[in-house]
Write a structure and sequence with these properties.
- The protein is mainly α and about 90 residues long.
- It contains 5 helices and no strands.
- The protein has helices at about 5-10, 15-25, 30-55, 60-70, 75-90.
- α2 (about 15-25) packs across α3 (about 30-55).
């Protein structure tokens, strides 16, 4: 709720979902990442996502990140699950 929902109303289409996923990847202690890559793998993804958010990103930057994570056998599945939950929560009337 703290990292995604306050920004959800600004999320537009695919880019908004990508932005939300990056926000989650930057802060989520994703157990799937930790399981596959240990704490080093988790920190790698958190730092990578944080750096993209800080400097800005485009589709090519996301493809580069995707390739880097695949090469390290890292999958932010927990963050993806939280993205789905965020989408649902954002749709609920508050």
């Amino acid at each position: 709720r703290r990292h995604v929902l306050p920004f959800w109303q600004h999320a537009q289409g695919e880019r908004g979902l990508q932005q939300a996923l990056l926000r989650l990847m930057a802060v989520n202690p994703d157990t799937n990442l930790a399981s596959r890559g240990g704490l080093a793998g988790l920190r790698y993804v958190q730092e990578y996502a944080s750096s993209l958010l800080a400097r800005g990103w485009d589709d090519e930057a996301l493809r580069d990140m995707d390739r880097a994570l695949i090469a390290r056998n890292l999958s932010p599945g927990g963050s993806a699950d939280l993205l789905a939950v965020s989408w649902l929560l954002a749709a609920l009337p508050w």
